[in-house]
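Question (not urgent): is this output format expected?
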Amino acid sequence: MRLSAALFLVFLACDAGVLPADAGDRWAPVRALFQASARDAGVPMGLVVFDASDTRRLELVSGGFTADTRVAVASASKLISSLVLLELVGRGELSLASTTGQVLGWAGPSADITLEQLLSFTSGLPREAPCTLISTTTLEACVQTISQMTLEAEPGTRFDYGSTHLAVAGRMAEVVTGQRFNQLFSSLVRTPLGLPAGVTYFTYPKASIGTENPLLAGGLRASMNEYAPMLQLAFHRGVRGEVTVGRPELFEAQARAPFPDAGVGNSPFASLGYDYRYGLCSWLECDTPATGCAVLSSPGAFGFTPWYDREAGYVAILGMELERGPGDIGVVSFSVSLEQQLEPLIREALR
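Got this back:
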């Protein structure tokens, strides 16, 4: 018996994880783009989409990659690190105005760096420090080394994408709570969401090495299914079911560039040709960063790319862990380009 084209699409959609109520032609362009991209690039990857009620609307996989494949999410870690830090701000243990001088005892020009500047990567610190890649040290010792580095810009005046900012912010969290960062992540985010212990931060996430000096800017390991509830927590402004972190106004602040007039130093998005600015641990995908954006993203160096769109009402994750991009295209170029192409198709499918 032969199925009609429309009925075949319904079966395919259900098989891919789309709810029957919205199956059919609405999702065909999304599936077609994903499948063509996976086929032409020859890379294992996946895509999941959840609507505003956290219902899974689409799941597509290729090359043996699944929604449960746990990978090093690289810079997608940044958005999740913000959940811990914004929760401490919400509790009053830190504020966005807390300085390294007040919390860490720093002196000199670096003492005036605020948590807000650290989270927006405008601290003025060199964007990378060798100690963040030493698995045998601690975050405390690493940040002590960073405290001796010379500022490259006045705090709040220049954006530089890198790892030092969040290392310092994470140490501030450790000092005010008396707990290691992975303990904080577990108690404030992972355990309340019911995620397994393997979802944690490492110095070298691909090898699962180094939990005492976690790379807050890129050391998390998670699958698409494990990352999704954390992304939904940010999408819902800190509330997902009975789990809450921070306060709604802090997530509104996350969606704005706190220093919109800051110059731009190192910016991966600019190198790809996109004029996007940065909020608090998230890229702002709009042309109104000073007043706020509906679309926030946090793509990683190995291709794992989460984003959400509050206006269209969905969260999505492109899952992959690539060493190199297809052909002459870099990994981030490939994943971000695919994300940008998928966004309007997903919005249309959900209308």
